[in-house]
Design a protein that fits this description.
Elements: E1 2-7, H1 10-18, E2 23-27, H2 31-48, E3 51-55, H3 65-83, E4 90-93, H4 104-123, E5 127-131, H5 137-146, E6 151-155, H6 168-175, E7 179-184, H7 208-217, E8 223-226, H8 233-246
Parallel strand pairs: 1-2, 1-8, 2-3, 3-4, 4-5, 5-6, 6-7, 7-8
Length: 247
């Protein structure tokens, strides 16, 4: 298990590096703004020995494949181009596939767009990982069958939303081999995006031990991003380390 922090700014990256984390997961919203910060990111990489993962921009018009084709797919391709400048090997994206909300007639079109993005990522030697938002495994199953190079970022906090039981259990059981990265944060459950609070571990109601235990039992030893505010990173890292070692 390798723990890092989520960075939305250069200041976040520096704080994550100074606190001794091995990686920062940086938000890349577009290639132009990223390239303006590239020199600073490289200097911090050389100074602290930190590595980077990437997180793409929000999807926007999630139920309109034509807008996604014109606007979102080119942005993700731009992000992947930018990621190569720092030898980033994994990029997480939001690409909503919840069949409760995506009209049936648009689902196949979204899968085709996802195929295009995965193919582009392969050419850039980047593993593209789809992050669960409100989805269950059944929403991702077709994409995983169709796209052998698609990875998954398992978000344990999101797994507690719009569901009776945290979806981490079913993703771990059904597609562990696709889980290449994890996001962890706490909340109190809920039925909307407003309930996605990104609280420090222990300040919500998520019982992390059995879910992390299931992942550890299956041999998970990859990266975990603490998606909490920077001032909580050190405390949450200690909490996560203690919990992981106790399992």
């Amino acid at each position: 298990m390798i723990i890092g922090g989520r960075a939305h700014s250069l200041h976040d990256v520096e704080r994550i590096a100074q606190e001794g984390f091995q990686f920062a997961e940086i938000s890349i919203l577009d290639e132009q703004s990223f390239m303006a910060e590239l020199g600073h990111l490289k200097r911090m990489q050389n100074m602290y020995g930190i590595t980077y993962l990437a997180h793409g921009p929000e999807e926007g018009a999630a139920t309109d494949p034509e807008i996604l084709r014109r606007e979102y797919v080119p942005r993700i391709q731009s992000v992947l181009d930018a990621a190569c400048e720092l030898s980033i090997g994994l990029c997480t994206i939001h690409f909503w596939l919840d069949k409760r909300f995506i009209p049936h007639e648009y689902f196949s079109a979204k899968l085709e767009l996802l195929r295009d993005m995965v193919g582009y990522a392969v050419k850039r030697s980047v593993l593209l990982c789809i992050e669960n938002l409100s989805e269950h495994f059944s929403d991702f199953a077709e994409a995983f069958t169709l796209l052998g190079d698609l990875g998954m970022t398992l978000d344990i906090g999101h797994g507690a939303l719009m569901t009776e039981r945290n979806t981490t259990y079913e993703f771990t059981r059904q597609c562990f081999d696709r889980i290449h990265h994890i996001h962890i944060h706490d909340n109190w459950g809920g039925e909307s995006a407003a309930d996605d609070l990104h609280l420090p571990l222990g300040q919500g109601t998520i019982d992390f031990a059995p879910m992390l235990g299931g992942l550890k039992q299956k041999g998970f030893d990859k990266t975990i991003t603490l998606e909490v505010r920077p001032e909580y990173l050190a405390t949450c890292s200690r909490t996560l380390h203690r919990l992981w070692e106790s399992l």
